[in-house]
Amino acid sequence: MEYKYINRIDSPSDLKKLKVEELPSVCAELRQFIIEVLSKNPGHLGSSLGTVELTVALHYVFNTPEDKLVWDVGHQAYAHKILTGRRDRFPTNRQFKGLAPFTNPAESEYDAFIAGHASNSISAALGIDIANERSSKTDVRRNVVAIIGDGAMTGGLAFEGLNNTSMDKNNLLIVLNDNHMAIDPLKGGFTQYLVDLTTSAVYNKWRWRLYKLAAKLHLVDEEKRKALLRRNNTWKASLTKQSNNIFTGLNIRYFGPTDGHDVEGLVRILSEIKNHRGPKVLHIITKKGKGYAPAENDQTVWHAPGEFDVATGQRSAINPQPSENVIPPLWQEVFGETLLELAKQNEKIVGITPAMPSGCSMSIMQKAMPDRVFDVGIAEGHAVTFSAGLAKAGMLPYCNIYSTFMQRAYDNIVHDVALQNLHVVLCIDRAGIVGNDGATHHGLLDMAYLRPIPNMQICAPRTAEDLRQMMKLAETLDGPVAIRYPRGRTAADPCLLSNGKGVEYGKGVKLRDGEDVAVLTIGSIGNVMSEAIEEVIKGPSTKYKGGIAHYDMRWLKPMDEEILHEVGKRYRTIVTAEDGMVAGGLGSAVLEWMADHGYTPHVIRLGVNDRFVEHGSTKELYHLLKLDKEGLCESLLQVPVK
Q: At residue 441, does pLDDT exceed 50?
């Protein structure tokens, strides 16, 4: 397709050269360009289609990058990337060494703040706005806009930011992109509140006129303005037949709701309110997937649909059904099916998810038992503390949170769950490298941040059956249990030796015996290590004449001390491998245990060293980190043998 407009827009200054009546054509081209590119290079489609008009209007009205746009979350910002000098590179989005999956200040001066996790925009934008005001040496005003949507307003951090915005002197503009969706349809009282919320444009116009008149007559100052906002219920009720709303109740001027797909209307509204002093909210209504019928009709699937045919809307088979039962299931599917099986047998079991029922497959239980699954919105800390309350009252919550999002609930885990030794099962999905979503989504820290917590029990499955048995075993334990597992498909067990036992509490399993070196792994990386060991010992000139012993530890806490004593006595060299940070993980735990028990082996730790890992395919990133078969083989060949 030939793009008449966007091919001539290399920066927002080019956009500003156009007439307002040309902007709908720019939006149409942007929407088509995003669809065309993402059909071949998968990404977050629906969210960005819904913010095309808003993005064009923001860059048309504001003087970016001097004015700051803080996106929340970043998968709303594809049109923003295209309009800010990254059009030609956009087909590399989310690819290894290509554009970042979300906004990132290291990539562009137009990206005011990183936006991989939800609900941080208001807090960050408020900080930028206040800092700008205090550091400015000129009368030129720099605007700051927080664009929050796609479910991010359900997060507690967003409300903390609103509270602070109402207290401190600032000129922040918050654009609330209300599409009633996260990945799945939004639930909860605030969502329904937004559905019901209407404000008369006549009311806003006349209130502003009255304020300006009062100010001109020196009848009102800033403090009196806030008092007027708090006391406007009677005025507003008479003009709009609606009581005060949450934003005006917090001394934040409210505009809307308005059509988020009327770009000319948005330009008019933004032009009018951008110079208003004080904090303000513009509430816009948009449709996720706007302009592409398949994405509009199934917004959950088309949040990130993978490759698809533009003309037909036919998606490529991301998870093809096996003609014969040779393709293992996804880890999340094993979790979802096992949870439903356990819940059918134990009426105390409930499922908790922070807006990820389809992503983690808790939707399987949700469909069968909707009254026993709680989608709490994008609120990870609340999900954990809510689970703690359920457990305190006798229920057995299985709380599923992605590893990288669990970081946001750390104090809740420590203070509300572990300190009281409550029986909450934390199912940690997307552990390890997750691929194209990059540094904000790789689950590399969970073992290190969970291991020091008293009462915490931590395990990681190597196979699908391990996960099933760990979930069943967790039902019988006391206190908090964390089960971590990766994204993608489970692996068939390639190991040569098995003790024939199921998963036992605090026990690992020897997968292979050998005399030269002991290798200790935990989780699914054990499958790759098994393949690497097999290749190394069968090499024509291998130095491992006595073989390599391989232990799947299964449990990080408590660790199998029988295995550790055996390894400490038999081997001078130990190799540990994990798909997480080496600092604080399995390797650190083994070193600490050996030192505490008087063993002095040479311990070589393989994993992720002190770094944030960029985006790219899982295959590319494991190769980069030398945690694929090739890299593990190379590491084993460098290990000194006695």
A: yes
- Element spanning 176, H or E: strand 173-178
Which runs of consecutive H residues, i.e. helices, occur in 41-96? 45-49, 52-61, 78-81
With the C-alpha atoms ordered 577, 578, 584, 590, is the resulting torsion angle positive or negative?
A: negative
Q: Is residue 380 flagged as an active site residue?
A: yes
Contact 56, 15 (CB under 8 A): yes
- pLDDT computed for residue 235 by the predictor: 43
21: its two tokens = 């009546």
Strands of the sheet with 373-375, listed across from one edge = 373-375, 349-353, 396-402, 425-429, 481-484, 457-459, 555-557
373's tokens? 């699954």
Q: For the stretch 302-331, what's the b/e string if a residue is b when 16 or more beta carbons lie within 10 angstroms of its beta carbon?
A: bbbbbebeeeebebeeeeeeeeeeeebbbb
Between helix 23-40 and helix 52-61 the angle, nearest 10°, is 130
Of 120, 138, 227, whose CA–CA distance to 174 is shortest?
120
DSSP 301: G
Q: Is the pLDDT of residue 212 over 90?
A: no
The SS3 of residue 603 is strand
Q: What is the pTM of this model?
A: 0.84
DSSP state of 284: E
How many other CB atoms sit within 10 Å of the CB of residue 615? Answer: 27
Q: By three-state DSSP, how is residue 511 classified?
A: strand
- Evaluate whether 449 touches 629 at the Cβ level (below 8 Å): no
Write phi, then psi, for 427 (nearest 5 degrees). -95, 110
Handedness of CA 80, 85, 91, 93 (dihedral sign): negative
Q: Are 377 and 154 in contact (CB under 8 A)?
A: yes
| pLDDT tens digit sequence for 387-403 | 999 999 999 999 999 99
Q: Distance between CA 174 and CA 144 in Å, rounded?
A: 9
Contact in structure between 455 and 426 (CB atoms under 8 Å)? no
Per DSSP bridges, beta strands 548-552 and 517-521 are parallel
Helix 121-135 and helix 156-167, axial crossing angle in degrees, nearest 10 = 30
Assess contact for 105 and 114: CB atoms under 8 A: yes
Pair 553, 593: CB distance under 8 Å: no
Q: Residue 105 has what DSSP assignment?
A: T
- Residue 273: HSE in the Cβ half-sphere, 13 Å Cα cutoff: 30
Q: What is the pLDDT of residue 245?
A: 81
Round to whole Å and give the CA distance between 103 and 94.
11
Give DSSP secondary structure letters for 420-473.
TT---EEEEES-B---TTGGGT-B-SHHHHHTTSTT-EEE--SSHHHHHHHHHH
Element (H, E) at 353: strand 349-353
List, for residues 154-172, the tens digit of each pLDDT value: 888 999 999 999 987 899 9
Tokens, residue 295: 């994405």
Among 29, 53, 380, 620, the one annotated catalytic: 380
- Residue 498 pLDDT more than 80? no
Q: How far is CA 210 from CA 206, 220, 225, 235, 236, in A?
A: 6, 10, 11, 12, 13
**Between these two residues, 236 and 316, which has the higher pLDDT value?**
316
* H-assigned helices in 168-289: 189-196, 201-216, 222-230, 233-240, 246-249, 263-273
pLDDT in tens, 405-422: 999 999 999 999 999 999
The residue annotated as part of the active site, out of 408, 462, 468, 510, is 408
Strands (E), 34-124: 68-72
Find the catalytic residue in 87, 142, 288, 629: 288
301: confidence class by pLDDT, cuts 50, 70, 90: confident
The pLDDT of 469-473, averaged and rounded, is: 97
User: Would you call 187 a catalytic residue per the annotation?
Assistant: no
Pairwise CA distance, residues 135 & 168, whole Å: 16
